């Protein structure tokens, strides 16, 4: 809004502080800046309200930390089934229907530590399966050319059976055969060992007689 002439004169008089006709710059500036330009008695204009101070920015919330990955559970090892102890036994009561392999294993089990075989029903059933039981043993002992040396005769019979029934096992039976033949030779030579008295027969003749018996019964 423009000032009137009267208002300008009033401002000039007020700015002439000393009445000298000279206007002081500071007084004039204050007059111009006063409320109403001079009609308000030099009152200062009210200070304009301060601009509102913006609140400080609220920091964005920090993202929640990711939970640590749970360790994968280790697979529980499967319990091994308890191993059943299976006792492998070779039946000593064999019949004609049993395989040669079963008879072979049973015969080896019957051999004594000195290499001999003794007169038993189990041995008779292996080498002579025509009748079985005691009759087989009786037939075996009746055929012996050395009735007073039953263990020696039975040892010769066992050798003859192994040679006739297991020819492909000659290599693995080498030690078994040698031990058995030594037992026969020791008995026939009349050495002590509880095998009886000395007959008039050598090892070769005894083994041949045993082979003939096996041919007859098998």
Give an overview of the whole structure:
With 218 residues, the chain is an all-alpha fold. It has eight helices and no strands. It has helices spanning 5-15, 25-33, 100-110, 121-127, 134-142, 150-165, 174-188, 203-217. It is rod-shaped.
Poorly predicted runs: 36-48, 83-97, 191-196
The fraction of residues assigned to DSSP E strands is under 5%
Amino- and carboxy-terminal Cα gap: 151 Å
Q: Could you report the average pLDDT, rounded to the nearest whole number?
A: 74
> Which structural class do the helices and strands define?
mainly alpha
Tally of separate helices: 8
Overall geometry comes to: rod-shaped
Per DSSP E runs of 2 or more residues, the count of β-strands stands at 0
Supply Rg.
66 Å
